[in-house]
Specification:
The chain is α/β, with parallel strands linked by helices and 301 residues long. The protein is built from ten helices and ten strands. The strands form two sheets. A five-stranded parallel β-sheet has the order 2-1-3-4-5, with helices on both faces. It has a five-stranded mixed β-sheet with strand order 7-8-6-9-10, with helices on both faces. Its EC number is 2.7.7.65.
């Protein structure tokens, strides 16, 4: 896939699809749906559209209903929608915009108008995406930041509480990081942070979330992952970090892992258990992985 924006064209008349495609295919990647249900399916599928051109009058599910459905879904609510329709009264346009559409183009299709309005909305979407990315990512490591981590984690915990499943959390703390800064300066410290972040992010699955939690601490949310699988992954990451040597700087890290308990545990408590496991890893001599559950069992026995 290239860097072109992706536009989803939705119309039950093939001639209209062909007209829209003729205006846009040179500059954008196109996806096509000829009914509302298919539109919703494609809107949720990668690549997520950057813009949807949506007909209003369609059988079974009209464009207004499709718009309501998309705007009620967290995964599609931010996709801008332009209605393209023969309904040309002021009242119709006002209604479409009230539903959340960003623009309203009336038929017959005029290529110059379509091209100009689509171009404007794509620029606005790209600017919005850039601002959102800056707000959710750590600028040094480009990992997600603490704010995004907590928001995403609470959402995952709520889903698991409703539907079941497993979730493990891994907390990573770089060992002796203050000494790294003292010996190599903050530039050396930044080099270490970026190198560790690269190891953590390069090994994660699509459903995992890797975040810089603060300072030299990182957190990984491991969706659909048991504590035993998390332990195995943590050991692989620990070994990779130990062998990094960014710009000749020796680096190790201590890992604490915990699995969400099936008794309504909240993320804050889950994270606290992983943090306690990191503390125990430090007590054990650093550069090791500690499971919160195992340590709890040892203390209770």
């Amino acid at each position: 896939m290239n860097d072109k924006a992706t536009i989803l064209l939705v119309d039950d008349t093939r001639t209209n699809i062909e007209l829209l495609a003729g205006c846009l295919q040179k500059h954008y990647n196109l996806k096509v749906a000829m009914d509302g249900k298919r539109c919703i399916e494609l809107a949720e599928r990668d690549p997520i559209p950057d813009l949807i051109l949506l007909d209003v009058i369609m059988p079974d599910m009209d464009g207004y209903e499709v718009c309501r459905t998309l705007k009620s879904n967290p995964s599609t609510k931010d996709i801008p929608i332009i209605f393209v329709t023969g309904k040309d009264s002021d009242k119709d346009e006002e209604f479409g915009l009230q539903l959340g559409a960003v623009d309203y183009i009336t038929k017959p299709i005029r290529p110059a108008i379509v091209t100009a309005r689509v171009g404007t909305q794509i620029i606005l979407k790209q600017q919005s995406d850039a601002l959102r990315s800056m707000a959710l990512h750590d600028q040094l490591t480009r990992l997600f930041n603490r704010h995004y981590l907590i928001e995403a984690a609470n959402s995952k915990v709520a889903r698991i509480t409703r539907h079941g499943g497993t979730l493990s959390v891994m907390m990573i703390d770089i060992d002796y990081f203050k000494l790294v800064n003292d010996q190599f300066g903050h530039q050396g410290g930044d080099t270490v942070l970026k190198a560790v972040a690269n190891v953590l992010s390069s090994a994660n699955r699509k459903e995992d979330i890797v975040a810089r939690f603060g300072g030299e601490e990182f957190v990984i949310l491991l969706d659909h992952c048991s504590i035993s699988d998390a332990d195995e992954k943590a050991e692989q990451l620990r070994s990779s970090i130990e062998h990094l040597l960014p710009e000749g700087i020796s680096v190790t890290a201590s890992f604490g892992i915990a699995e969400l308990q099936p008794d309504g545990e909240e993320f804050e408590h889950l994270l606290a258990r992983a943090d306690q496991a990191v503390y125990l890893a430090k007590e054990k001599g650093r550069n090791c992985v500690v499971q919160a559950e195992k340590e709890l069992e040892v203390k209770e026995s």
